[in-house]
């Protein structure tokens, strides 16, 4: 494996703590000065009658035949991206949303626009403010039940209700590691309540986005910390996040919704389908929202468009590096007519 190529020993099995310095794998005890927990998350189990009929992100792609109609329970990253993917494959999709808005972490105005476009362009059906109470096997598929009655019969039902920390098998109490249903608690050095045990990735209870690049950043930090290359606490950079729906949503920095509630910030909403912002590939309803602080520094951005991920990535350096706008304009001239070129007019 890759790890063995780097000189590491790999063991396949389920690990659990015996004490703060010992784990057990395959009935064999292993001791170490330090441990790093990076077990991530798993699909959230729905404890309802008929849960055994539900597919998850783990086994959806094992289907041999494409279903004709599907119900998706949940509307986070996984639920909304699956809805987009399956609809593009010709599947009739219904998304069941527990609250009144999918994708709670994204700018609400953009999310509402996305839902409208997914309805109108892809024909996806959304059922809001609904809890699924049971799934029953029917002659022609599976019936989905809610407190309000039968929601319909579907070829397949997908559980995309979220992900939960992969904790149960670890026996963290034996090592004195504190945790909750949100994950393992750590300090600013990613140290758990046991001072020789660290945690990183999705298993951590944190406010930073639970994303692959975030976990990789934490891994780099822990590598430096444990090899005495740094003694500084972890400081997260500006982190970009995206949902690959149709169209895409992407954002970074200060949340637009939170900025609207804080007088220290001002917000600029831009229709990037008009005027100098229009460029090849822009779809008809693309919008960009920017957050500026009192010093007029760009501190947040969110976009809905078919190129949102690339556009937000172009704006992250502006937020992350304190560059004088005049220096930016003097030293850089981006390729036209991409949005990156228009940064000079935004800052």
Automatic annotation (TrEMBL):
InterPro entries per the UniProt record, alphabetical: FAD/NAD-bd_sf, FAD/NAD-binding_dom, FAD/NAD-linked_Rdtase_dimer_sf
UniProt keyword terms in alphabetical order: FAD, Flavoprotein
Keyword Flavoprotein (UniProt): yes
One Pfam family hit: Pyr_redox_2
SUPFAM superfamilies referenced in this protein's UniProt entry, alphabetically: FAD/NAD(P)-binding domain, FAD/NAD-linked reductases, dimerisation (C-terminal) domain
Keyword Nucleotide-binding: no
Gene3D superfamilies, sorted: FAD/NAD(P)-binding domain
Every FAD/NAD(P)-binding domain range: 9-219
Name of the protein described by the UniProt record: NAD(P)/FAD-dependent oxidoreductase
Molecular function terms from GO: oxidoreductase activity
Organism name: Limosilactobacillus reuteri
Coiled coil regions, renumbered to chain: none
